[in-house]
Amino acid sequence: MCGVFGVHGHPEAAHITYLGLYALQHRGQESAGIVSSNGREQLVYRGMGLVADIFSEPILTKLPGRHAIGHVRYSTAGGSTLRNAQPFCATTDGGPVAIAHNGNLVNAVAIRRELEGRGAIFSSTSDSEVIVHLLARSREGSLEDRLIDALSRVKGAFSLLLLTDDALIAARDPWGFRPLVLGRLDGGFVVASETCALDLIGATYERDLEPGEVIVIRRGRLRTLRPFARAPRQTFCIFEHIYFARPDSNLQQQNVYAFRKELGRVLAREHPVEADMVVPVLDSGTAAALGYAEESGIPYETALIRNHYVRRTFIEPSQSIRHFGVKVKHNAVRGILEGKRVVLVEDSIVRGTTLLKLVTMVRQAGARSVHVRVSSPPTIGPCHYGIDTPSRDELIASTLSVEEIRREIGADTLGYLSLEGLRTTSALLKQGFCDACFSDEYPVPAGDDESPPQLSLFHDVEPDGSEGGSLRRGGRS
Ligand code: SF4
To answer: Which of 341, 361, 404, 442 is disulfide-compatible with 275, CB 3.0–4.6 A?
Structure first.
């Protein structure tokens, strides 16, 4: 998963982009980058790690210009290395371009093989780089026409920003899998994955980009294009609402926190239980637990304390780190839990290993019984559109029944939100959504790229062996 942010027409474009990426840090913590343009040349700085660790005041000062785009990355296709860090930059005969992409392309491997067969040399293992190559090879005239030509060839999910020497272009795939919003700041324009980024910089929310929409912002003027064939339906990723997006963001004009709370209410009606307290698995289960508590009348207690200095376990790439993370991330409050019947609310169960440890921890802290409630249906399939769910055979709900999962995680009872409950609640969104990882109804077939994370066709080693940041120039050739 990734986050993108762009600014057009602001004297401190790189600084604003830094703040935007800071707000979007939850969407990717492996690498980050900013490209700025002063109208003559583009400057890029990318590094591995968190935004605040990569960028400093001296670095931002070396990224001049009134236009910039930025990216935070968590790999869902291609490894976690500096050469996969975005934005990607290229020099075309139309001038320098930089691209920042959120989403996953389901036909990237096939296109890449085709392009390599025609002599293309890729510098990363990311699916996003095929867009750069398609754009560079397009026979269309302007850079926006070339981008549209390139995007017409890819399938899957893209919320994408392209920076030229004088324009910011934003595009969303016809299905509308990933969010992308437009805002205004000090007479300029900003585009971001989520509204929380607009809030941080004090920008005004204008609107969501529509599925299949392309906007071109040049010299302070915005032009809207709808160049792609309409998708049969809109398929906004419902998992953004359930887990991924920040609760203070609005997605499709629906507040994420309020939506999660409503899921908790529905969950309480579907799976009531006699208990003394409702305890969230912080932070993702918080809003759903509050909804469950309000609907059921059972008191809400934060009896699992989270260490905020540990990164999200769900998106840790290494099995060993994930297990380590579960132990250091939460601690149970014995003084609250002892002798109590506890409802533990979580947003989703992926492998089940985290919940097994949490249920065990709550029991060891003296709880009399532990009832697990999950504010989404069983996750039975992988995501091909940009969320890092593991392969089907690693998903506990793809092979075990609810009763078997209950035994596996050691809970007294287990209740998932029903698919019908999710779909009824999602009607609040007033737009179509994707729930394929819960329903197995995939709107876009995975095709050749059934396992996108295995796109490692090349060595992922920097030429000089380094993984640090890099400042490079790209000028008109
Ligand atoms: S498969 Fe699941 S995670 Fe992927 S886009 Fe659809 S709802 Fe979102």
So the answer is: 341
